[in-house]
Amino acid sequence: MEERARQLLLLAAVAGVGAAFGALSTAAVFSFLSRAKRREGYVRKLLESNGGAGGPHAGSTGPGARLHDSSDLLSDEVVAEQLTRNIQFFGVESQKKVTESFVVVIGLGGVGSHAASMLLRSGVGRLLLVDFDQVSLSSLNRHAVATREDVGTPKAYCLKKHFSLIYPECQIEARVQLYDSSAEDEILSGQPDFVLDCIDNIDTKVSLLAACVRRGLRVLSAMGAGARADPTRIRVADLRESSNDPLSRAVRYRLKKDHGIEGGIPVVFSMEKPKAKLLPFQGSKEEETPSDYQIVPGFRVRIIPVLGTIPAIFGQVMASYVVTQLAQLDFQTEPIVNLDLDHYRVLHHRLLEHEELIYGSAEQVLVDAEEVMYIVKELWRGRSARDQNMDTGRKMWRSVNELMLVRWDKSKPAGVSNLILLKFSEADAHESTTLDQIKDEEPEFYAMVSRVLKRAETEFAL
């Protein structure tokens, strides 16, 4: 009766401001109260069912866990409430793609633990967590969830235990296992929607990346996060475009030499030069060698100094990239283009000269050097429009002396949505043809350019 009286008082208060909030009906208020009470009881039961979780094998697939078909996760009221911000961001259908996805994370240290944690919090429906190592006291400066109580336990079990308390509906499998070629079928089976390579050993990393390429699996790889301090220099790009990173350089060389793979693998890397080197090996006895301290053969024992925030940001970047890919959210990563403002001023001046030569005046040039930077860097990624479907990597770092901006449609002014970047010889050929000819003779090129310029229209609200 007291609960009913409180509800009636609330309804009376709502009625008192009915002129301003007439859309809020009595039925809606009762529905809200009822929903809130059900959710409160539901969450209480959920917490009680999780009370026994805590052993190394605890997790969403353990006894007492609520098992769900990933295809109906969003119909669960608690799950929908927990993921409400994601749903608002992506929309229901796109978020459903995330909750129905299966992601494999290999390597669960500073980078991998943070990546896995945000994949879980973003609603990924199934996770396979793989790492052979244990939580150490020194790893607590960068691990996503580990506590002192977890020291000495396998990293995979540690994550599963904590994850089961955050999002128990996720189907989590934890494997204390070293990835190598013999484990390929076991770990990469099941058609994962994405594989995250968070391994810091070159041999194992190369083996995994080659296997993913061979199997046609989408993979995102983390390069070196140690000995860095500047979060603004972290980028996502093709492996061929990564620079200032010794690990990237070694992985590129080994993939090409051993597997004939030259690129096509997105990576997270830092453009910052490492601030410190590997610490020297110091054994306790003179006759000891580094191999005496290896956990498994082939893994380094010398330590890389690590500022814990940087691997955490690497992991967050990886999770963001993967979740948006799973949700099919279209966005363009910032291209790696080695041009400074003076180069863009040169291209702007060259455009003015070209307009005066072809049209007798530069009055219809509607862009300045800053907008030229947007066109060259964001739209054409620092290379000729006719090179857009070619391999990226170092080919995109062309000399500015080879390139110029020209109008796409000669009947329209030279604005941000009507300029393409071409080499000199290509620009001459373009000036002697028409859009109708290009559309008839090169329909794919015409469609690609139209699509890129449409993006400029959208982003500049033209």
Compile the SSE list and pairings.
Blueprint: H1 2-16, H2 26-49, H3 77-82, H4 84-90, H5 92-99, E1 102-106, H6 110-121, E2 126-130, H7 155-166, E3 171-175, H8 184-188, E4 194-197, H9 202-215, E5 219-222, E6 234-238, H10 246-259, E7 266-270, H11 309-326, H12 341-359, H13 369-379, E8 403-407, E9 419-423, H14 424-431, H15 435-441, H16 443-459
Parallel strand pairs: 1-2, 1-4, 2-3, 4-5, 5-7
Antiparallel strand pairs: 6-7, 8-9
Helix pairs in contact: 4-5, 6-11, 9-10, 12-13, 15-16
Protein name: THIF-type NAD/FAD binding fold domain-containing protein
InterPro entries: ThiF/MoeB/HesA, ThiF_NAD_FAD-bd, Ubiquitin-activating_enz
Function: Catalyzes the ATP-dependent dehydration of threonylcarbamoyladenosine at position 37 (t(6)A37) to form cyclic t(6)A37 (ct(6)A37) in tRNAs that read codons beginning with adenine.
How would you sum up this structure, described in words?
34% of the residues are buried. Helix 9 (202-215) crosses helix 10 and helix 15 (435-441) crosses helix 16 (443-459). The model is unreliable at 11-34, 50-67, 281-302 and 391-397 (pLDDT under 50). By secondary structure, this protein is of the alpha/beta class. The chain starts with a helix and ends with a helix. The protein contains 16 helices and 9 strands. The chain has a 7-stranded mixed β-sheet with strand order 3-2-1-4-5-7-6, sandwiched between helices. Strands 8-9 form a two-stranded antiparallel sheet. The chain has 3 domains: 2-48; 53-274 and 306-326, NAD(P)-binding Rossmann-like Domain (Rossmann fold); 341-459, no CATH class. It has helices spanning 2-16, 26-49, 77-82, 84-90, 92-99, 110-121, 155-166, 184-188, 202-215, 246-259, 309-326, 341-359, 369-379, 424-431, 435-441, 443-459; strands at 102-106, 126-130, 171-175, 194-197, 219-222, 234-238, 266-270, 403-407, 419-423. It comes from Triticum urartu (Red wild einkorn). InterPro entries: ThiF/MoeB/HesA, ThiF_NAD_FAD-bd, Ubiquitin-activating_enz.
